[in-house]
Amino acid sequence: MLDDFRNTQEEEEYEEGTVQANIQPEYEPQPTSGRFLGMTPFQRFIIIFLLFMLTCVLGSFCLLVTEKIIPPFF
Fold this sequence. Notes:
By secondary structure, this protein is an all-alpha fold. Helix content is about 60%, strand content about 0%. The model has no long low-confidence stretch (mean pLDDT about 80).
């Protein structure tokens, strides 16, 4: 009884392997355009520049509030 199960399992694996070998892929991969999140390099530069400026302004403000630096006109 168990031998029959083993034989049927081996036959099914062989049949599945031959069928899948003949299947062609449904799509061909498209070459990427080199864009990150759909932005051009100049757009990415502007975003990074704005983040840099925001970090500088907030960092300076934090130093002023904690009195780690004092402007010369005070």
